Amino acid sequence: MTRYKRTEILWMWISVLSVFIGLGIAVGAFGVNEFETAPMDMRIIDHKYSTIFCYTLSLQSEARFRAYRFTGDLRPRTRKRPFYKAEYTKYVDSGDYLYYNFYFLAGSSVSLISCSDHLVELYVIKGQGHFDQWKTNKNCSGCYVASAPVKVNGCFLNYNNYSLSTNETDTYFFVFMNRKQSTWVTAKFGISRVFYDLAYTTQMCVNKLGCRIPVEYNTDQRIVYHMTPKTTKSTMRMSSTCEARLSIFLTIFALGPAIFGLLLSLVIYFACSDPEPERILPRRRGVNLIINRPPELLDEECTPLLWETISSDPPQYDDINISASCPERPPSYEEIDKE
């Protein structure tokens, strides 16, 4: 294989890998982050976000929210805890489930009164990972922190009053599993929340459905959002999108591979050599004789391998080439017989 061919293959692989790795990081690591949120949730964006790779961060939501930018860490405000009430009634088919999820800071508390027309089960699950595990295995005993049956007419008699005080910041899921007859389920939440202290933050948008926030390069800037309580929805879809910092991606996935490819191309040029050319003798009787020797050495050869005629018959004197290095022809058969 020639040096040119080796270099061509090298640059082909460098181009393909650079494009696929760059797109994979841009889309997979720092692309669109979709998640669920609830009324009054206050949460720091910490997934698919980087001050190096992100030029801006765009937030989109089904309900209005506020967004703040800050540097460093936020401290929880434990003295003042706003209280929030919400009541939801939904229909659950037999064998199906419904859930409500809230993002609680450590120190928040919630009380839940629930009821149904038929018996259902309540599961309290902490963390998205445990909830995903429970969805694949409804009998997973290690997936939930508490469970209790929801009795019939519990809403009128204040039955099924479940209380929870959170000691860890996480997403908490309240899941109603209906293993029997289809029924209506009512859930009444009373939530006392701990929020972050926003005294040292910069407010970027107020009561918006969408917000585009610029991000300074290579800093410890972070973004926190706060959902409005004025919504009838129990769960809203929200997304954060990291808009790529083009200069960083071009430097890492274009300029970097180009320099690397140039260095390897120089190594191939100086460390490797092209294969020696092949010489094909004149074609006789449908046979080609290929000699892998430099042309300048062929003239010095005095061997029957260089005969012009390739035949299965015994070689003839007349078939031998006469060159400057072999000027004399061997004597003929007649001359030998005379002697």
Automatic annotation (TrEMBL):
Keywords: Membrane, Transmembrane, Transmembrane helix. Residues 316-339 are annotated as: Disordered. This is E3 ubiquitin-protein ligase APD1-4 middle domain-containing protein. The keyword Cytoplasm does not apply. Residues 167-260 form the E3 ubiquitin-protein ligase APD1-4 middle domain. It comes from the Eukaryota. It comes from Patella caerulea (Rayed Mediterranean limpet). The chain crosses the membrane at residues 9-32, 246-271.
